[in-house]
Amino acid sequence: MARILVAGSGILERPETRISLEAKGYQLIVCAEIHRAVGVFLEDPPDLLIVERGFSGAGELDLVRVASGCLQKTNIPILLVLGAEEMAAGIDWQLLPVDDLLARPVTAEELLLRIQLAEARRNRVFDNNPLSKLPGNTSILNAIQKALTSSVSMAVCYVDIDNFKPYNDHYGFSQGDEVILMVARVIVNVIDQAARGRSFIGHVGGDDYVFIVPEDKVVEICDKVLANFETVRNLFIEPEDVLRGGFVEKDRQGRVTQFGLLSISIAVIPTGHGKFQHSGQVAAVASQMKHKVKALEGSNYLIDQREEYSSD
Amino acid sequence: MEDAKRQEFRNALRQTKNLPTLPGIVSKLTKMADDPDTTTEQMGKVIGQDYILAAKLLKLVNSAFYGFPQRISSISSAIILLGFNVVKSLIISASIFEVMEDQDVELWQHSLGCAVVCNVIATRMGVKDPEEVSTAGLIHDIGKIAIKMELPSEYEMITRLVRERKMSMRAAEMEVLGLDHAEAGGWLAKGWNLPKKLLEPVSCHHDPRLASTEQLNSAIIHFSDIVIRGLGYGHAGDNKVPMLSKRAWELLNFRPADIDEILEQVEEKLWDVKGFSLEIKAEETSSTVG
């Protein structure tokens, strides 16, 4: 059952609005107070957010920013409710990144239709990874293509977790999922702070991720991702394995082997200016780089330094 | 005390939602959050000095939604995983909490002081993750504030007993509620999905023998609580120093010379923290948040 957080009070003034939504199986959580709405959003995130403009001073701006800023939750549709005079004043959609708007007075029928439309639209464009909620392959290819034509040089970074397969076998898939999520959170949060708005983060699947950041930020970001990963990692490994410096599990051939602790490898490919024509070329270079960086012990990143490539 | 009554208190405490935060801390953090140059680490450092925000942060990161139930036991890891925006939102949502009163500021200082001692001892003993131990020390008295918020009339009776019959807070809690703040804190930690490494030191800080796997950490919190009360830094509701558990003393296995060195290091570290306390108190008087 979809849960809708309503930040404001005016829109549900007429009881029939509420009744008609609840009759359709929507669960409504109404917060007339902005701080409480932020708290609810964080601790018990809804499936959809309706925000009334001006219901709490300028506070709803904060709420929308919180809602759209938590990168994990970017798939929660946000509807904004406006009065006529606020519409006349115009709105900067960069500052208020919502998905749809409703003009007061809002009828019960319109509200229901708008909610259903928002849900349908979300399902249409949704190629996100179900675990990390990060964009998937279609979005990744688009983002790489966009980076190739960007006016500033970008760096396409391929991340994967070393020893993930034996970790998963040893600790179980549910804990494996936690590690996948942990690495996603580490990457998202580092980039969010260092290069927000100019970056992209995608999840290829399993323990493979791609992020794209401005080239001049890539060293700072990779260093930070590795450092944060090292800080958090041991919480996901049993103390005795941490002491031993690895865990014992069968390898792909079924032989009992000691594997090192989890680490991450990042292959970094700067896009330069016109160095690549299409994303397939980037992927080819990436696979060579991945091979090199994975051969190194522990967590590492390697930046491709080549100026040009042979045309084969 | 009959079970029904205990159960009633237990249910009330389990529903604890809003814990009061110092407006001084919130306004300081709000300022930091608005400054684009503030790093997540800097905010973590401030949050790491407030037991309520620390508890809220740990509750959030260990909640089912974030996907790491009973896993994250240190503030720095919590912040890495939640990220700047969520930490900032946590601060926004904290600003609605009731304003702390003077005696709560004392409890805040006691909690912070206890965390400082825990860190000194854990580092000295070569514990694997000293931050985890100081985090447990920071939130060890969380049950006290929950009792105050959720059971105000019982809390009134408890403080009267402490005042009039010169009882320890814990003995008064047992008399009025049939349970103490350590047990109450343990329920909270459990309800919030906190890892055992934090839960047990909170619920067993008066008797480390009760801990199943975290006896050493519980013993460190237990002893740190005694040290910080003995030093008279902050105030934890009564002016009594708790009894030292024999088991804790055996586990810690300190020589008298160790204690001298520990006290010296603690004094030094408290000095930094005192500067921060004064700053917060100054914010408190000029602050309009809350």
Can you walk me through this structure?
The complex is a heterodimer of chains A (312) and B (290). Chain A is an alpha/beta fold and 312 residues long. Chain A contains eleven helices and 13 strands. Chain A is 43% helix and 23% strand. Chain A is globular and about 65 Å long. Helix content of chain B is 69%, strand content 0%. The model of chain B has no long low-confidence stretch (mean pLDDT 86). The A-B interface holds A 33, 35-36, 38-39, 41-45, 62, 66, 69-71, 177-178, 181-182, 185-186, 188-189, 192-193, 228, 231-232, 234-236, 239, 242 and B 39-40, 60, 63, 65-68, 71-74, 76-77, 80-86, 88-90, 92-93, 95-96, 128-129.
Q: In sequence order, what are the helices and strands of chain A, one letter per element? A: EHEHEEHEHEHHEHHEEHHEEEHE
Which CATH-level-2 architecture of chain B? Orthogonal Bundle
Percent of sequence in beta strands of chain A: 15-25%
Shape of chain B: globular
Summarize the structure.
The complex is a heterodimer of chains A (312) and B (290). Helices cover 43% and strands 23% of the residues of chain A.
Task: Compile the SSE list and pairings.
The complex is a heterodimer of chains A (312) and B (290).
Chain A: E1 3-7, H1 15-23, E2 27-31, H2 34-43, E3 48-52, E4 55-58, H3 59-69, E5 78-82, H4 84-89, E6 100-103, H5 108-124, H6 137-148, E7 154-162, H7 164-171, H8 173-195, E8 200-205, E9 208-214, H9 218-233, H10 239-244, E10 246-250, E11 256-260, E12 263-270, H11 279-294, E13 300-303
Parallel strand pairs in A: 1-2, 1-3, 3-5, 5-6, 12-13
Antiparallel strand pairs in A: 7-9, 7-12, 8-9, 10-11
Helix pairs in contact in A: 1-5, 2-3, 7-8, 8-9
Chain B: H1 3-14, H2 23-34, H3 40-47, H4 51-61, H5 75-94, H6 102-124, H7 130-138, H8 142-150, H9 152-164, H10 169-177, H11 181-191, H12 196-203, H13 215-230, H14 246-252, H15 256-286
Helix pairs in contact in B: 2-3, 2-5, 2-15, 3-5, 4-5, 6-7, 6-13, 6-15, 7-12, 7-13, 8-9, 8-11, 9-10, 11-12, 12-13, 13-14
